[in-house]
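In response to the reviewer comment on reproducibility (Comment 2.3), we provide here a single inverse folding case reported in full, input and output, so that an independent group could reproduce the run without further information from us. The C-alpha cells appear first.
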C-alpha cells in the first residue's frame, strides 16, 4: 500500500489524535521511494498564508483573520516541541510552551480558556488536544517513525501498542536492509 500523500488521508483517527497527527506531519521529512514513487520532503506550513489555510481547513480559524510571522514562529515552535516529544528514542527533553491560559470552572468541570488572538487560540486548541490524549491514555500511541528518512508521525493501532515503524513493510524492511548492508560492508576486507 502506498504511504499517505497527506496526513489528512489517514482516516478513522480519534478526533484529538487526528489533530495532533495532522499538525505534526505538516513537517514532512519523508524522502524514500515507496513502490517506485519518491516522496519529497516539504513543509506544509512554510509561510503565514500556509498556516492560515491549514487552520481554516481544520476548522480552527474563521475567514479573514490576519496571520503573521510571529504566529508562524509560534506554530513552528509548537510543532518542533510536539515532534520531539513523539520520538521513540527517549531523548526528548522538556519544553515549556508559552500560551496565555485561564481555566474556567463550571458545574461541568474544568475547561482551559486561552486569552489570546484568534490564531494563538487556534494553536492552543492543538495544545488542548495533547492534554486530552494524555488524560485519556492514548498519547503513547502517537509516535514518530524512527527511520531517519521518514520521521512520519503515526498512530499505533496495534493492541499491545508496541509498533515501532509507521509501516513495518516500508520503513521496517528498509531499515533492516540498510543495517544488513552496513554489517556486510564492515565485514568486507
Ligand atoms: Zn516510517
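Designed residues, in position order:
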Amino acid at each position: 500500500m502506498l504511504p499517505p500523500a497527506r496526513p489528512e488521508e489517514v482516516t478513522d483517527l480519534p478526533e484529538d489524535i487526528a489533530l495532533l497527527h495532522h499538525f505534526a506531519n505538516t513537517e514532512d521529512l519523508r524522502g524514500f521511494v515507496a513502490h517506485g514513487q519518491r516522496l519529497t520532503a516539504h513543509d506544509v506550513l512554510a509561510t503565514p498564508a500556509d498556516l492560515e489555510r491549514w487552520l481554516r481547513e481544520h476548522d480552527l480559524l474563521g475567514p479573514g483573520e490576519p496571520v503573521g510571522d510571529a504566529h508562524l514562529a509560534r506554530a513552528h515552535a509548537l510543532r518542533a516541541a510536539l515532534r520531539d516529544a513523539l520520538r521513540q528514542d527517549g531523548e526528548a527533553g522538556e519544553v515549556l510552551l508559552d500560551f496565555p491560559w485561564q481555566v474556567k470552572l463550571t458545574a461541568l468541570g474544568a475547561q482551559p480558556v486561552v486569552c489570546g488572538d484568534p490564531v494563538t487560540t487556534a494553536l492552543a486548541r492543538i495544545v488542548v488536544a495533547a492534554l486530552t490524549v494524555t488524560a485519556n491514555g492514548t498519547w503513547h500511541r502517537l509516535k514518530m517513525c524512527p527511520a531517519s528518512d521518514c520521521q512520519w508521525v503515526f498512530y499505533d493501532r496495534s493492541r499491545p501498542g508496541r509498533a515501532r515503524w509507521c509501516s513495518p513493510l516500508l520503513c521496517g524492511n528498509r531499515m533492516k536492509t540498510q543495517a544488513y548492508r552496513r554489517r556486510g560492508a564492515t565485514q568486507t576486507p
